[in-house]
Amino acid sequence: VQLVESGGGLVQPGGSLRLSCAASGFTFSSYWMYWVRQGPGNQRELVASISSGGTTNYALSVVGRFTTSRDNAKNTVTLQMNSVRPEDTAVYYCQLPNFRGRDYWGEGTQVTVSS
Q1: Phi, psi (5° rounding) for residue 48?
Q2: Measuring CA to CA, which residue among 94, 82, 115, 111 is closest to residue 9?
Q3: Do residues 84 and 95 make contact, with C-beta atoms less than 8 angstroms apart?
Q4: Among 84, 78, 90, 86, residue whose Cα is nearest residue 62
Q5: Rounded distance between C-alpha atoms, residue 71 and residue 41, angstroms
Q6: Residue 88 bridge partners (DSSP)
Q7: Cα torsion angle, 47, 88, 110, 76, sign
Q8: 61 by DSSP, 3-state: which?
Q9: Quick count: other Cβ atoms within 10 Å of Cβ 57?
Q10: Could you read off the pLDDT tens digit of each residue along the chain, which spans 115 residues?
Q11: What contacts 98, CB < 8 A, 6 or more positions away?
Q12: Beta strand 90-99 pairing with 9-11
């Protein structure tokens, strides 16, 4: 299993950023995918999830601002982040949950929201 996140960077409050995760090594179309984040001094937080069929769920803190989607033909999952806030600053990880008894994460991509 390999998960590679991209798209992070520095963005001003109120701005937008689009994260992507390229997946390989498993049948991507069959599995839920998660976006989790870990801010400075915080535990990892589940931000968004998407089922194999495209059903999505979001943390209350990002509802209405973040949108996740997937392209099963390209084995990619994305996280569109709009109206970002300083508290969204974190390392964002793509996660494959509970695959053959364990979770997998990528290396993460840093998102910094600051003026």
Answers
A1: -155, 155
A2: 111
A3: no
A4: 84
A5: 33
A6: none
A7: positive
A8: coil
A9: 14
A10: 999 999 999 999 999 999 999 999 999 999 999 999 999 888 999 999 999 999 999 999 999 999 999 999 999 999 999 999 999 999 999 999 999 999 999 999 999 999 9
A11: none
A12: unpaired
| Cα angle value 52/43/14 (rounded, 5°) | 75
**DSSP reduced 3-state for 88:** helix
Which of 10, 5, 15 has its CA nearest to residue 65? 15
Residue 40 CA to residue 72 CA, distance in Å, equals: 32
Residue type, 96: L
Structure tokens of 43?
């535990």
Answer whether 81's CB lies under 8 Å from 111's CB. Answer: yes
Close Cβ partners of 92 (under 8 Å, ≥ 6 residues apart): 5, 8, 19, 35, 36, 37, 47, 79, 108, 109, 110, 111
Quote the tokens at residue 95: 């996660």
